[in-house]
Amino acid sequence: MTAAARTRAEYAFILLFVEEMTEDVIYCTLSYYAEGHSDLTGKGFRQLSSVLIKEVLSRADRKTFVEYPNRLYRDVENFVPAFYGDDMADWDKEKNPAFEYCEARAFLAYRDGEVVGRIGAILSHRANERWGTKRMRFSQVDFIDDREVSAALFETVENWAREKGMKEVHGPLGFCDLDREGMLVEGFDKRSMFITYYNHPYYLDHLEALGYVKDTDWIEHMIPIGDGGEDDRIYARLKRISDAMLRRTGYHKVTVKRRSDVKPYVRKAFELINIAYAPLYGVVELTERQIDKYTDKFLPLIDPDFCCLIADDNDDLMGFGVGAPSMAEAMKKCRGHLFPLGWAGVLKSLKFNDTLDLFLIAVRPELQKTGVNGIIMEHLYTGCVKHGIRQAETGPQLETNTKVHHQWKMFDVEPHKRRRCFIKAI
Predict the structure, then answer these.
(1) Which residue, 242, 226, 231, is CA-closest to 377?
(2) What is the C-alpha to C-alpha distance for residues 29 and 118, in angstroms, rounded to an integer?
(3) Same domain assignment for residues 275 and 312
(4) Does the N-terminal peptide bond of residue 396 adopt cis geometry, omega within 30 degrees of 0?
(5) pLDDT tens column, 120-177
(6) What is the CATH number of the domain that holds 144?
(7) Residue-level pLDDT at 46
């Protein structure tokens, strides 16, 4: 058989598969063939032939994509799902304002008709412009312990990255810094937060086998909370720092008795985040629509005892901190679905809990390491004592962010979990 005849035969062979699929299905053998490999019975075909990669295009596909972690981790006690509605909205161009400056695609991996993995790909043009890079982000990646599956998922993202002229792929990252980021590399025996990922330990071996290496890490801490009594030395020290800073600076804590009292300061808080977080890894400034989005996400969770706003005489915001009682148990029970009954468990968790989740802390750059953050910490600590909370868990904090790690030195804490952003040149 001539080379041309063999090529025609192979093409016809491929079409037999394509005719059985919808047009939004990408078969891994097609990508192998497109790269110039004419021998479909070779090594590449054997490795990838059992894995089907389907792009998420319909709402039904998006539901499958979002629900997959609940299936993969159904027997894992420390896995905590995110809000189902938030994850659905992430991949909806009409609902996620990040699509103003991002391109994104999501994919599902199938074998024998069963979902065996998922991965998202995000091209943040604004991040590449801000940091002078040509990078594609991978996001929301999960897969069974099978090298064929992980290879097919990452090959799909890497191929799209090359098509878009990118030089590197890194992640897991979200559309912006307020999304979940970092793959768990230490702390698998600790329960996750709903604002962070959980993943199996074998993910690390898969990424290393695929050529991904560490780019940066985030660290989380679990902070013990005392009873606020005479023997609570940490509380006494925080109280002294807070009182001294308020006297010396003339700043004041904004009186917050109800959620509506916070609304006039929400935009100021996000403007401060844009300033304070600007030097951090991969951060880009939040747009007005993104500020509205995250206001809607976090405002309903605010309790005045766990929200501290520090302002000057002009009522300009100097710093703030926001936390909320952990919703991990409630989110696990409802599998991330607030409706029809999940909301009841979430509301209960906000009232009766022994753990505080620290969401956001930001201080104007010129005031960092001056003691202003001590005012925030004293307020949150007092709230914990009032509500009987015994520990507070930080969200992921960059290991290179020495300023934020400095504030935990007075506490007897060790790194609780570690997350990693991987990178690969393509």
Answers:
(1) 242
(2) 18
(3) yes
(4) no
(5) 999 999 999 999 999 999 999 999 999 999 999 999 999 999 999 999 999 999 999 9
(6) 3.40.630.30
(7) 30
